[in-house]
């Protein structure tokens, strides 16, 4: 099959490309589930990772984005984004294969230093592929369908994520309880399975059509100045960077907190993650529809306060000694953050694509990824370094209740160790929202109008459901 770009794609080719991009997303999501998130953190802890090393693992996916300048040079040099994406994707999967095979090839198995070293190259080549892939999708996908397409794609990948995460976590917990000596090996084998899923995406990428890009030859460094000179896009960068910093200050350590501090099992942590994903699945189509109808900025302004409320609620998980209360609180938190993240992630991605001019899409989006990488990588690294300091400090807010039976102390808030990060993350996120208000987007609507329409739509559905049920009963 020839991998040369096509000057003009037909509607049939575009539709076929959209289906292939969706299937590619499912293959990549399988790889991400098996080689990241809870399972990666669990493996790192089993290998004796320190807090700083946990933060470094969390920072690698974004830290490597600063090297995307090389991908821009390749795209300008050869003007074939599909070939660059395919080759870099193949190179990105090789370290996963090595990690998965190490326990069978070497008696020492995998060490935390080896894991970090190999994952660096996995994420490095993945960042090269991501730079050209984003620009490729910018030209392939119709702009008027962008919100609905990514919403549908996200919904399918999250359904797969939920199913796979639950299944694998049950298997890992079973191994942990019945065959504890094989727990590390089973976590390592996940990388081998993930590499197979990742390699399957190559076939889909090869078949996906690529429209011929308009290359504007000029000095790469001069091109990178363009997004910074674009006043509106620069404001987006400031917001995106600060928001990602706020999220990554605490999020990478949530699994560590639940595993080590709260003593939850891998399966229970996965169930909570599934709750968040299901909430996102239910709402992502709503956010996609409203982002197309109104604006991505409006969706973010609605979702951001939900995320901040969820992050602040993490600080209260240490208040009660009741495990049942904590699990219910964690479920509520994950519902809030799941709903919020589905809208924020979708809209941030769409907003970046929307504000990037077609002629310089790859430069704009790569500059966005690189600048954000610095912020998102700095946050977990800083968190890992400060973890030991906060482990020896505590802030307690108590209320004293006096009665004829005696005096009782009621704990209102207890900040210690990771809880400090949860509050700091929420505070920084609050300040970052103010930066978003300065970003201009076509079709922007007031948040109150969109919320009013959402509430009206919800009421209409509530009224319609009993009527539908009654009609079905009568028909029977």
UniProtKB/TrEMBL annotation:
Q: Does the keyword Disulfide bond apply?
A: no
Asked if the Swiss-Prot or TrEMBL record annotates the protein with the keyword RNA-binding, the reply is: no
Q: What are the transmembrane regions? A: 26-48, 54-76, 83-106, 112-136, 156-172, 184-206, 236-259, 265-287, 299-319, 325-348, 369-391, 418-436
Q: Which keywords has UniProt assigned to this entry?
A: Membrane, Transmembrane, Transmembrane helix
Q: Which PROSITE patterns match?
A: MFS
UniProt domain Major facilitator superfamily (MFS) profile: residue ranges: 186-476
Family matches, as PANTHER family: INTEGRAL MEMBRANE TRANSPORT PROTEIN-RELATED (PTHR23526), MAJOR FACILITATOR SUPERFAMILY (MFS) PROFILE DOMAIN-CONTAINING PROTEIN (PTHR23526:SF2)
In its UniProt entry, what is this protein called? MFS transporter
Which source organism? Chitinophaga rhizophila
